[in-house]
Amino acid sequence: MPEAIGKLQLKSSFKATQTIKPLYTGGKVAISPDENLLITTIGDSIEVTDLQNGKKVLHLSGDSELITTFAITPDGNYIVTSSRSLVVKIWDFKTGQIKKSFKAHEAPIIVMDIDPTSSLVATGSADSTVKVWDIEGGFCTHNFRGHGGIISALKFHLENNRWTLVSGADDCNIRIWDLQERKCIAVLKSHVSVIRGLDMSNDGRFLISGSRDKVVNVWDFDKKILLKTFPIFETIETLGVLQLHTTIKNMEEDFELFYTGGDKGIIRIWDIKTGKLIQTQEPEKNTKHVISDIIYLRKSNILTAITSNQSILFYQITSGLKRVKQIVGYNEEVIDLTYVGKDETHLAIATNTEQINLYNIKIWSIDVDNENSDDSQVNCLGVCIGHTAAIGTVAFSKKSLKFCLTGSQDRTIKYWDLSHLDRSRSDENFRPKVLYTNKAHDKDINSIAVAPNDKIFATGSQDKSVKIWSVNDGKLLGTCSGHKRGVWSVQFSPVDQTIVTSSGDKTIKIWSTTNFSCLKTFEGHTNTVLKASFLTYGTQLISCGSDGLLKLWTIKSNECITTLDNHTEKIWALTVRKDENVVASGGADSLINLWEDCTVEEMEKRVREEEEQILKEQNLANYLLKKDYQNAITLAMSLNQPFRLLNLFTEILDNRAEDISITGSESIDKIIATLSKEDIEKMLQYIRDWNTNAKHFRTAQTMLHAILKTYSSNELLEINGIKE
């Protein structure tokens, strides 16, 4: 046992220092004009996040109805939102205050666009109408009817002081509206499915439209005629035109280009004149998503893709559409997590989706992909195939990567030989050999743990049993029976020959691995205990469960030291950093919390508070001795000592010297007159309690009389709880 244990400090306090919260749950996304702030929808609210450090800058609370769309003005002063309540709100983007609020349509607004001067916002609704609004005044300037379906795309165009608005709908038509003449001046018909993207060429001569019919049309905007149709071979969800002279990798000529995104989940860049494919983003491995929108960041030459799995992906145009940043907006249900990397600088998160998300803890929710970093390279070294049902648990050897063990819903455990694994290269075709397979349990196997010496391993199952096995030959050594419901987790002690298990019977048990008897049982969770881990060199435990709580236990005393609460649903995942100073938890509420040991800080804080308390007590005694009532009353109230105050007021009344004073002391009358609202509230609570005892009613009534004489009824009504 290490020397440090001789000076072992048991942990007693943890605090949540970092939290990954849902950043984007679907819908519209925008980036501020200066390209520094990310604006996302979370249910009925808008969240503004700093792209550099991932910190929340602003939160715009909704009206309990889901946000359908929003837009930010090009000057960055306002943000316009709409929800299923049919209300449009215009917010001051700097202060977060609502400037205007009004009902706009008879059905939810689906799309918005703001003109280049930041003075007008166009709204397209499911009621088939298009309306234009003055942002400063909040009034409607135009109301256009003509589409025969839901409005799906909008684009302002200003040229030679002539304002036009282009709209597309699921009636497959594109309409061009003249804002001066207040009428439709053209209907463009060619698409055979809903219009999803509209944009203008840089010189304003061409209108580019994209549809779910898998083609892009280029129109002569002046003549209102179709010039070209380019087959894209994917359902288009978004498109846009790149600015002139954009540098494209391996392209020498200067073309005018546009980009598309859709159901293939990749960004592609095309030549407007020829329809030639200029550049394609490399497909993401092991991902299946649709690109629902693309945001073009002109200053940094980045295309930001918004995907159907709530990810926000940043691609550098000048480097061949290489992904340079990724933000995971929503983690779904966090099933498991673990620290990875040489210095445990990253967290690997498993959710109820098919991807594993890797977070850099230093910058938290923003994952920067640096190809020169070893931590960014995650390669498949081999695939273990053999189970006939879902695999519920995996455990690797502790000393070196010699083997791994897997447990499955097919009720078997398998030992996989990893001694021939080549860690220097990726090889998805490598198949580790199974050295043995055992029918281990009668129900699903939920957990496997390998002992620190790699000689034995333990399994926990829904059949309520825990079994200990030999690693070398897979021989059953013993069974630990005692849980009344399924076992969810198993872990070996780092120092003793014991294991800890957690179960659906709301208990945690410690078992001997030599005679398989139950040594300790911990009770305190109010629901299933899903995970338990050793802490502090095996002298403490930390557990989490379906009650949404983490609990810290001391093994010797069987005592729950503290309960941590920062989740709203069951906590599936729990992992401890090697230095045991930080614990990470994740749950069904999509939250991931980092809990940092603050035991020493709390102890130092308590010592300081005790010293301050002793000093104040001494000062109070000195004030009373000197009959310095003013300071004595102030200090007694700050110390929250109503009994001392009662004795002080009673003594003054008993030795009443000033008939003109309400309380018997003019200095005390002055103190009463200068009390803050919080102190008046506290004093009234003291008086209420004093008044319940006949011995103290005279003092209580006198002090109440003093307060009522000093303060008006309006002043007293402002005090919290006064009416109660």
From TrEMBL:
A Gene Ontology biological process term: endonucleolytic cleavage to generate mature 5'-end of SSU-rRNA from (SSU-rRNA, 5.8S rRNA, LSU-rRNA)
Main localisation: nucleus
Source species of the chain: Cetraspora pellucida
InterPro entries: Utp13_C (IPR013934), WD40/YVTN_repeat-like_dom_sf (IPR015943), WD40_PAC1 (IPR020472), WD40_repeat_CS (IPR019775), WD40_repeat_dom_sf (IPR036322), WD40_rpt (IPR001680)
U3 small nucleolar RNA-associated protein 13 C-terminal domain ranges (all copies): 617-724
Entry keywords, A to Z: Nucleus, Repeat, WD repeat
Subcellular localization(s) per the UniProt record: Nucleus, Nucleolus
GO cellular component: 90S preribosome; small-subunit processome
MF GO annotations: U3 snoRNA binding
SMART domains xrefs: WD40
Pfam family for this entry, one: WD40
WD repeat positions: 60-101, 102-143, 144-187, 188-229, 257-280, 384-426, 438-479, 480-521, 522-563, 564-596
Protein's recorded name: 10497_t:CDS:1
